[in-house]
Amino acid sequence: MPKQPLRKWIWDLLAILIGSFIFSLGVNYFAIANKLAEGGFTGIALILYYLFQLPPGPVILALNIPLFLVGYKVFGKRTFLLTIYGTTMVSICLSLTQNWGEPIPNDPLLAALYTGVLVGGGLGIIFRVGGTTGGVDIIARLGNKYLGWSIGRTMFLFDLAVIGASYFFIGREKAMYTVVAVFIGARVVDFVVEGLDSRKAVTIISNSAVSISDKITTEMERGVTLLKGRGGYTGTDKEVLYIVISLPELSRMKQLVHNIDPDAFVVVHDVRDVLGEGFTFDRP
User: For the whole model, what pTM was predicted?
Assistant: First the structure.
């Protein structure tokens, strides 16, 4: 495996630190302050905190030690080091931000929503640079790597099992609010990992494909890919256009296509995390 540049390492370590701090704020300032539970190893640590007042930071670190070896065997040296670093930073940040929070008066739903946003946002940042915080995070990454499972969905299923156990310690109402927090967190994780910058991919089938391609290239300065297609009913050959654009450009592109060919078949898809010239690279 090629060596990572020093700048890349510094950025990844800084991102994991920021993600750990955001995660810890969600746990301490909103979850613990309102006696909500969590999923995974964090949820187990919170149950132990509510029962025996054991500090969550050191407990999470202790629970993750047996999984460090698994992380090394599956993901290699880099992820192994980032996992140890991420788990340690989460433990430290949880200890530093302990007792920061006060319950939000008469609004456990708001507390649940903010718990999900902060916990999911923090984990998403950590995952995006290739790190983990151990525990269920490693299991979720295993499912994503070998089975193609969504990281957020896998974590959600594991979280439900821990939340089910927490029901007996925090009560029905708090457990229900915890489900809301975990669900929001899972969606935020997917959103951050898959990309913050949503784009639109457009597929156009038209008898005037070349004219549309020329207009999009010259007037909108967007690259167009021409694909070969064949009509399933008519059997005639057609050219299919594929374009990726930003959301503000969509309306203009629709009007441009309509002016050239009102009968064009246009399909718009949601895409995320676009890499390449015109989006992440400067044009020469």
Answer: 0.74
